[in-house]
Each structure stands twice: as structure tokens, then as C-alpha cells.
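tool=predict chain=A
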Amino acid sequence: MTSPLPPTPVPTPHPVDTSPIALTPAYGDDLDPVWAAVVPETRARANDIHLPISLAYAERLCAGYPKADSLLVRVSILLHDTGWGRVDESRIISEGFSGAWRRAAIRYEHEKQGCLIAREVMPPLGYSERFIEDVCAIIDGYDTRNEARSLEDALVRDADRLWRFDQAGIALASDWFGMDPATYCDRLAAEIVPELLTEAGIAMATAALVRSMALLKTGVLR
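tool=predict ok
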């Protein structure tokens, strides 16, 4: 069940872990059956890097927002980009990461395919029809809607963006967008931080970006 979205950025009274995400990989093995069901889809567009890191960030965010349905957030972030595995791979970079990429048709397509995948793999794993529809309500539009519809939706959106601030995310995404790392880091600060919907997400992104820029010597290598 989803929770209403408070005014953004959503505050948290809880401590926020801003340490490197590699220190806190996703916990437990309860989602392993879901992972196993979508292995082929994780091989597209570096999802096998992006999705586990995003799940780790999602769990950190859930710790800061205990009113959220953490299982809904965790399953949604695990599945949110699996749709890239069922679209024309030759179009992913040429259309999804260039020009007016935010409104590229392929971005809508991957959301729709992600919902189809969720509806395929989740029923055999015992998830209820209501829960599956809640997952799909987040996946369908998380990348293309202008607004979040619930606290869980907001946490998924932030988790999806937070991986970009880690060195792995910068390495992959800067290449997708045809930018050098320094220019991409500038874009993260100017465009992506303002898109974050939670105070916890902003704190994590800011700390990770400072670390990544220092490590990658972006002050010189530009």
C-alpha cells in the first residue's frame, strides 16, 4: 500500500547514511527469486550494475522514511529498468540518451515493457495482484512523469538517480551521454540534484558527488 507524498523535499528526522554505497550493499536474500527471474533483462544497458546499486540506495532511503512500504520500494527499484531488456538495443543510446532524451519514445516503451515483465515474473513468486499493480503504478511513469504520486514513488525516483553519483554510475552514464566525467558531474550538480525529492536523497547525492569528483580529479581533467 502506498503512502501519500508530503511536500518535497521530504524531510526525515532520522540520521542519513552518506558513506560510500559500497559499504552497505542491499541486505538479505528475500529478493533473490525476483533477481533470478530477470537475469536476461539485467544484461541490457548495464542493468547488472545499475539495479543492485540502486537497490542499495533504496534501502538507505527506506531507513530514513519508515512510513514507506519498504518492500514495495525495493521490488519496484529492482524491476524498474528491466524493460530496457525488451526494446531495440540499437535505439537505447541513440534515442534514450541524446537530443530530447527525457521525452524519447523509447523511454515510454521501456516503462511499459517493465510493467509487462513485472506481471509475468511476480505471480509465480507469490506476490498479490494488488501488490503487483502498485509496483506497476510506480514503474509506469517513474522516468517520464513530472511528478511522484506517493512517498514510495518518490523513493524509487531518488534511488534511480542516486546511483549516478557513485563512480560506477558516472563512468557508465557519462559515456552514454557522450560527456567526459567532469562535464557529467557538472550536469549532476546542476540538473539532477534539483530533481531529488527527499532530503535524505539530496544529502546522499551531495556527499557522493564530492567524493567522486575528488577521486576522478574533475577539477583538472576537464
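The chain has one domain: 30-215. DSSP finds eleven helices and no strands in the chain.
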